[in-house]
Amino acid sequence: MEESQVFEKLNQLQADLSARFALEDEIVKLPRDLKVKQELLNRINLEYIEEHERSEAAKIELRTLRIQYEEAVRARENSEKQMELITTQREFEALEKEIKDAAAKEQSLLKQLHVKDKQVNEFSERLTDKEELMGLQKHEVDEEASKIEALLNEKHAALAELEKKCDSYISENLSVDLFNKFSNIVRNKKGRGIVPVHGLVCQGCHVVLPVQFVNDVRSAEKIEFCPYCSRILYYEEVEGADEQFRKSLSDVEIEEGGLADFVDSGEFDDLL
Fold it and tell me: I want to staple 86 with a disulfide (CB 3.0 to 4.6 A). Which of 91, 162, 215, 218 is the partner?
């Protein structure tokens, strides 16, 4: 197979490798999208658990306050009943103070009951909202998981076909070593593993290449890699660029000739 056909084959392989690597990236990315949604669901679940624990603690406090309030009411009522049994002013004053203290405690507990009851109701409302949010998020996660699973199956099947197609390029003219090297270049260079040279310039990294090296690329006798960006190179005829190459080649030939083209070698013999 001629080198031009090898370059054509590499260009086709480049397209298939680019599609393969894009698929591999998608397969890696898809579960990440689900992971974000799952993490959000986990955070909502954790918040719900913490809120539920606070709600249960508030309910216990509410029940305790109710018991204390009922005891305070009974204590006041018992003290009031004892008013009918007292016989001295001293007993009256002591009992009166006891009733006032019991009434004050009763009112204080009643206020605490109202505050705690309101808190328990607020917890209940927030828990209801979080339950609805959890349900919606779980439905979204389950739906996304099903969709991603279907997409992954589809993409894995497509990837298997692309891998098989890419492997089919390996032949006598495209060795396993060259295939692997080219695959790495395509992956690392964002889909561009083989590029043309215009004049003296690599169209991958846009660096001016040595004239003799470009001459080797132009001859296409073997695969040449750009010494700067590592891409495989082939020469492409472009108007203006070819003239630059020919001029540079002429300059090199003049430089290699040196003074020999202009001075007789024996001219300076008498100076020795």
Answer: 91
Residue 172: CB atoms within 10 A of its CB come to 6
CA-to-CA separations, 207 to 182, 204, 223, in angstroms, rounded: 20, 8, 19
Residue 115: domain span: 17-167
pLDDT at position 241 is 61
DSSP state of 198: E
Helix axes 89-167, 3-82, angle to 10 degrees: 170
Coil/strand/helix, residue 73? helix
pLDDT 10s digits, 51-62: 999 999 999 999
- State the Cα–Cα distance between residues 131 and 120, nearest whole angstrom: 16
Q: What angle do CA 209, 210, 216 make, to 5 degrees?
A: 95
CA-nearest of 160, 65, 157, 158 to 115 is 65
> From CA 262, how far away is CA 240, in angstroms rounded?
30
Q: Which residues pair with 224 in a beta bridge?
A: 233
If one counts the domains in the chain, the total is 2
Q: Which two tokens stand for residue 136?
A: 């919606």
**pTM exceeding 0.85:** no
Type of residue found at 33: D
